[in-house]
Amino acid sequence: xxxxxxxxxxxxxxxxxxxxxxxxxxxxxxxxxxxxxxxxxxxxxxxxxxxxxxxxxxxxxxxxxxxxxxxxxxxxxxxxxxxxxxxxxxxxxxxxxxxxxxxxxxxxxxxxxxxxxxxxxxxxxxxxxxxxxxxxxxxxxxxxxxxxxxxxxxxxxxxxxxxxxxxxxxxxxxxxxxxxxxxxxxxxxxxxxxxxxxxxxxxxxxxxxxxxxxxxxxxxxxxxxxxxxxxxxxxxxxxxxxxxxxxxxxxxxxxxxxxxxxxxxxxxxxxxxxxxxxxxxxxxxxxxxxxxxxxxxxxxxxxxxxxxxxxxxxxxxxxxxxxxxxxxxxxxxxxxxxxxxxxxxxxxxxxxxxxxxxxxxxxxxxxxxxxxxxxxxxxxxxxxxxxxxxxxxxxxxxxxxxxxxxxxxxxxxxxxxxxxxxxxxxxxxxxxxxxxxxxxxxxxxxxxxxxxxxxxxxxxxxxxxxxxxxxxxxxxxxxxxxxxxxxxxxxxxxxxxxxxxxxxxxxxx
Length: 509
Ligand SMILES: *[C@@H]1O[C@H](CO)[C@@H](O)[C@H](O)[C@H]1NC(C)=O
Ligand SMILES: *[C@@H]1O[C@H](CO)[C@@H](O)[C@H](O)[C@H]1NC(C)=O
Ligand SMILES: *[C@@H]1O[C@H](CO)[C@@H](O)[C@H](O)[C@H]1NC(C)=O
Ligand SMILES: *[C@@H]1O[C@H](CO)[C@@H](O)[C@H](O)[C@H]1NC(C)=O
Ligand SMILES: *[C@@H]1O[C@H](CO)[C@@H](O)[C@H](O)[C@H]1NC(C)=O
Ligand SMILES: *[C@@H]1O[C@H](CO)[C@@H](O)[C@H](O)[C@H]1NC(C)=O
Ligand SMILES: *[C@@H]1O[C@H](CO)[C@@H](O)[C@H](O)[C@H]1NC(C)=O
What we know:
Pfam families: TOD1_MUCI70
Shape: globular
Keywords: Membrane, Transmembrane, Transmembrane helix
Protein name: TOD1/MUCI70 glycosyltransferase-like domain-containing protein
Structural class: alpha/beta
Helix content: 25-40%
InterPro entries: TOD1_MUCI70, TOD1_MUCI70_glycTrfase_dom
Bound molecules: 2-acetamido-2-deoxy-beta-D-glucopyranose
Number of domains: 2
């Protein structure tokens, strides 16, 4: 689903009317549900439930190709958020004892054909050649209250893999052919092969191998109070890190009151950053917060290389927040400027995927990416060559349109959107293992891990456009880059965030 329309919000109108029998069956279920309900409650409740159903239908019964009733973005639907939720919880309480169980899996949904997001077209790239570099573009978000109402009530389907557990080794087995670390363990090549052979129940290396619980004597250690608070996150987590300087960490902006109250915003910092933070007036020692960010100090960082340490919260969010359902990872150099519910609705729920990441804005071939990394001195040439050769021997080929619907082999990984289900958790565990065994350049290993899992299951990821990513996170520049950009003031502007960037955003203001 994810690749249809290459991430553009235009794919839904084309898929119409398949599986009528299934659709009928679902309608029948709904009718039965309603009768059961009415049988025991008074008329007034019945009417409320119908109203609520219009919303719920949208979520439950968006079976492929089915047209669903949905609130229109451009309608004058001004129903306040609190009402939707009050009514939902009211119905929930009143009928708890006899309400049939909700369907076990989220089935996806499609917006109605006449929805503005289906007519939404990206503007053509700027004609001025000098301005075709990285830039933001409009995204058709839904209005906040619709995005919130569409948050799935049940998890997505996890193909084949149902039960994923993580290896805890004591003592550590350090015997492997090459690579690995005390933090990630030393999986052998045979284990690596086995992990790619997806089964119903699996136990894999996934960082934190030294302890029973991530953050407790595993490296990347976190104090008990913070761990407890992290465990309490049961919905959406937004996570980021700053590992050397705190100065320009900015609190996320344009975040709704509802998200402020329900989304966990966690910023992981090292001890060095902590000492500079203590002098920062914005830091509240009682709440341990800077703006919306809840600050967590990480002790015993597992690697000497900061870039490797950063991969722990980036790829292993699901281990740090074991009860969370969704996560948005963002690099410390980015500022979030759109509500997380709207982002997840657009790039995960509406796409019916459990993993979404942006594509690199101009490179989509691992071999080309590896050369660029070498030329930029990002990592020792020999290590990059070794890794790429290894993948090549396993069957990695240059990207070409023959790989469609896969649109790219190279992600821009500074933002990752996930639903935490077993298969997507496995994906990031195995991706982390590659980063631990080979170079820390995760864009080199991404497609290998993705394609090995996709070859065994029907699971796939969505790769959206880099310019769409730049719509919801604003990149801050390193001082050296800012100097360079001063010479070209126009380009500086085009790289920034433009406030009115689409229907959803305009309504949001
Ligand atoms: C969403 O994906 C699930 C399986 O992952 C599939 O059963 C369902 O039909 C999809 N829904 C839509 C609307 O494409
Ligand atoms: C929700 O309940 C309020 C009263 O609490 C009512 O005014 C409103 O119409 C209801 N909305 C829906 C969608 O049922
Ligand atoms: C998952 O697998 C583990 C280890 O094999 C097992 O102990 C556990 O009971 C399983 N959980 C479920 C829910 O099946
Ligand atoms: C820290 O936050 C608490 C709770 O919001 C507030 O009462 C207190 O005044 C804040 N302290 C400082 C120093 O801002
Ligand atoms: C690494 O490779 C790049 C491109 O292949 C080359 O430009 C660079 O000089 C090499 N670096 C070293 C240290 O050999
Ligand atoms: C992802 O899976 C869906 C449903 O199985 C399919 O329609 C789509 O083409 C797949 N995309 C890729 C890139 O494999
Ligand atoms: C989002 O926040 C930025 C400040 O970070 C502001 O300039 C912009 O106008 C806001 N956008 C909307 C749509 O509220």
